[in-house]
Design brief:
The chain folds into 3 domains: 49 residues, no CATH class; 154 residues; 191 residues, Rossmann fold (3-Layer(aba) Sandwich). It has 11 helices and 19 strands. 24% of the residues lie in helices and 29% in strands.
């Protein structure tokens, strides 16, 4: 059935052409006047609404066909990114089932977590595992939540294998302390130094224990390689280095005092630790896949490596070649930031005179852009002006490793550069 011309005009006006329809409904032709019709333009002007009239905002229909004043905002992108990581280079074996409780800080906020475990130099069986919020003296401040692995409560893997749990609903905030408790036997990957106070082990099966674990102090990182948190996608940094990065100061340490953790706190983004005491470029390249490139969502890499490579004949050329290789492998993975080497007041192995000369040559190469344009000059903020081979007073403990104050100075400089040049 046809529609009367006047009614068709009303429908057209209701479709949003209010100004074009004003004063022209009664008796107006169905066709619109051509754009260059002077009479049409003057008709619009003469029938325009008074300027004092309040005009309603444009209305938008959303997907449910309900009228709104603006389209809904898209949800913020979320993803799993590491809130904690530790390179586990050594191996610790247990014959009978033993429960370990690792107390670790996480530097991401989100609603779900997943935990990656790593075996040592032989096969490992994980029987059960849980995660909870950690309190003081080994206590838990939340009920332990069981972890599963492909739907099962445990797994068995061969040597040097990473195994990631299923994602579990477990809300965390930035720098929360987690207690990851797990029962295992066999060879477990472990950190090189003691740096996790508040961690312990106990014979038997206690993964779901709600109280303090008891047992013996075990403050090396063990078994737990990475904690990923699902939250708003953002920047995430990994620090690649040796004992200076891992956080060695004395026989008892705390990863929370190492410069990566201090940068993390200052910038409010995860700066996870892939430092390994004693490593040089050869080791870092050999272990890069398992300790760095296996991480998800890393955007920036800070490299502080080379002090353990100094002293041998042709060391500088070899270091430069290996640094270039390392950076080329990291290039598709992250933006790389390279640090100069800190002062070295002695050498435990290589001839000290060669070490001094090579360190200065390597640092000049880094400052000159040999390792890329993104340079963090930690040597400049830790050395004496009158003797570049010596630390500033109070910044070292043994002529090689920074003190806690030294780590704070390093962290301040890394934070400054990443903030000013990296947009963090």
């Amino acid at each position: 059935m046809g529609m009367k011309p006047g009614l068709r005009k009303i429908v057209a006006c209701a479709g949003g052409m209010l100004l074009a329809c004003a004063g022209s409904i009664d008796g107006a032709p169905d066709e619109l006047a051509p754009p260059n019709d002077d009479n049409h333009a003057s008709t619009i002007e003469s029938n325009a609404p008074d300027a004092s009239l309040e005009v309603a905002p444009v209305l938008v229909l959303n997907d449910e066909r309900q009228v709104q004043t603006a389209p809904p905002s898209p949800p913020a992108a979320t993803s799993f990114q590491p809130g904690f990581h530790q390179a586990l280079r050594t191996s610790h074996s247990v014959g009978a089932t033993t429960t370990f409780r690792m107390k670790v800080p996480v530097a991401r906020a989100g609603a779900r977590v997943r935990v990656t475990f790593r075996s040592g130099d032989g096969s490992m069986t994980l029987v059960r595992a849980s995660v909870a919020h950690a309190g003081a003296a080994g206590e838990l401040v939340s009920a332990p939540v069981p972890l599963t692995f492909d739907g099962s409560e445990g797994f068995t893997v061969t040597a040097r294998t990473r195994k990631t749990s299923d994602a579990v609903a477990f809300p965390v905030s930035f720098r929360d302390e987690l207690a990851i408790t797990f029962e295992a036997r066999g060879a477990l990957a472990s950190s090189t130094i003691s740096a996790f106070p508040g961690s312990s082990s106990r014979a038997g099966s206690h993964a779901m224990s709600t109280g303090a674990l008891g047992g013996a102090v075990f403050d090396h990182a063990i078994g737990v390689a990475t904690v990923d948190v699902e939250g708003p996608t953002g920047r995430a940094v990994v620090a690649i280095g040796d004992s200076i990065t891992e956080g060695y100061i004395d026989t008892k340490n705390d990863t929370r005092n190492a410069w990566p953790a201090l940068v993390e706190t200052a910038l409010g983004v995860p700066v996870v630790n892939a430092g390994v005491s004693g490593q040089g470029f050869y080791d870092a390249l050999m272990q890069l896949d398992g300790e760095v490139l296996g991480l998800q969502g890393i955007t920036d890499c800070v490299v502080l490596l080379g002090t353990n490579d100094l002293g041998d004949k042709n060391s500088v050329a070899l270091i430069q070649t290996r640094m270039t290789t390392l950076l080329s492998r990291l290039a598709p993975f992250c933006r790389t930031w390279v640090s100069t080497l800190l002062p070295k007041e002695k050498s435990n192995y290589a001839p000290y005179e060669a070490v001094k000369t090579q360190r200065l040559e390597f640092n000049a190469w880094v400052r000159g852009g040999g390792a890329g344009p993104d340079v963090i000059d930690l040597d400049a903020v830790t050395r004496q002006s009158v003797n570049v081979h010596l630390f500033l007073d109070g910044l070292e403990v043994d002529g090689i490793h920074p003190s806690q104050q030294g780590h704070r100075v390093m962290a301040d400089e890394v934070s400054r550069v990443l903030r000013e040049q990296g947009g963090l």
